[in-house]
Specification:
The structure is a single chain. The protein is an all-alpha fold and about 290 residues long. It has one domain: Up-down Bundle (Na+/H+ antiporter like fold), CATH 1.20.1530.20. The protein has helices at about 10-35, 40-65, 70-85, 85-100, 110-115, 120-130, 135-145, 145-175, 180-195, 195-205, 205-230, 235-245, 250-260, 265-294. The protein is globular and about 45 Å long. The relative contact order is 0.20. Keywords: Membrane, Transmembrane, Transmembrane helix.
Length: about 290
């Protein structure tokens, strides 16, 4: 549509509503998954998930500082995307390992929920840190009371309290309409990415190198760590893919609300246009091979 110079555009108010809807829906589903988890079984994997959820956005931010000339706002936005996770990539990984005859742990959906939020919070924190360097208290208030974090964390708390029975009462809204809202949201993301494609060129080769190499490196480390704490071969592949993936639903919605000055052409093109297909075509079979030989 951008290529043919169409004037199609989702109105700003509608786009913001879609961002709010999707973040709350994702939080609710994650909270329900957490409610159903067995604490003793999931405790160590959850701790590992939190550790990667913290380390990945930090690594992204400083690796990009070394590889590119991006400012702190855009590095923080990218850190939020790569620190969070992709449900579609996760699902593709599950299908792959199940077709390969490998067993996976039932709590992997809980790990998906756990890893959704920390990367987004840290990415936003890092982005805002430079502008509020000498105001730590106001900075933390800005990060944790921002609309995106309140929606995600609040949704998780509500979902965990309500459980699956309570969620069924609102499922027609937050489940039944999710796919349609997501379609409109992704349409606007695509329009923004098309208009901002020049941003990826201006960022230089370093950003392309990062989008290709970083997920493979992180995924390998995650697979090895998962097996070290006793996760199965299939479970370690899916966990590695979780860590290697980049969000293109929750993170863009959060960044849109909390970091409106960040350039969509950078974080959308890298996460959705490069890393996502790379993980599907190369990342999944590579991590499956890697898990089988370590």
């Amino acid at each position: 549509m951008v290529a043919v110079r169409s004037h199609l555009q989702i109105p700003a108010q509608v786009y913001e509503f879609l961002s709010i809807f999707l973040l709350l829906a994702i939080g609710l589903k994650g909270g329900v998954a957490l409610r159903g988890a067995q604490i003793d079984e999931v405790l160590l994997p959850a701790a590992l998930s939190v550790a990667f959820g913290i380390l990945i956005p930090l690594a992204v931010y400083f690796v990009l500082k070394a590889l590119t000339k991006l400012d702190s706002i855009n590095r923080g936005a990218l850190a939020a995307h790569y620190g969070s996770t992709s449900l579609v990539t996760f699902t593709a990984g599950l299908v792959f390992v199940e077709q390969a005859g490998l067993q996976v742990e039932a709590y992997l959906f809980t790990l998906l929920a756990i890893m959704e939020v920390p990367g987004i919070i840290i990415g936003i924190f890092l982005a805002k840190r430079a502008a509020m360097r000498n105001a730590f208290g106001p900075l933390m208030h800005e990060v944790f009371t921002g609309k995106s974090v309140v929606l995600l964390v609040g949704g998780i708390v509500i979902g965990a309290v309500a459980g699956s029975a309570g969620y069924q009462q609102v499922e027609p809204l937050f489940g039944g309409l999710f796919a349609g809202a997501l379609t409109l949201f992704l349409l606007q993301l695509g329009i923004q990415a098309g208009k901002s494609i020049k941003d990826i060129r201006s960022a230089g080769f370093g950003l392309l190198l990062f989008a290709i190499a970083f997920p493979i490196v992180v995924g390998s480390a995650a697979v090895a760590s998962a097996q070290a704490i006793g996760m199965s071969e299939g479970g370690s592949v899916v966990f590695g893919l979780l860590c290697a993936s980049a969000s293109y639903i929750a993170a863009p919605a959060a960044v849109k609300l909390s970091l409106p000055e960040a350039q969509p052409g950078l974080y959308i093109t890298t996460s959705l246009g490069i890393t996502f297909p790379l993980n599907l075509l190369v990342g999944i079979p590579y991590l499956a091979w890697f898990a089988s030989v370590i």
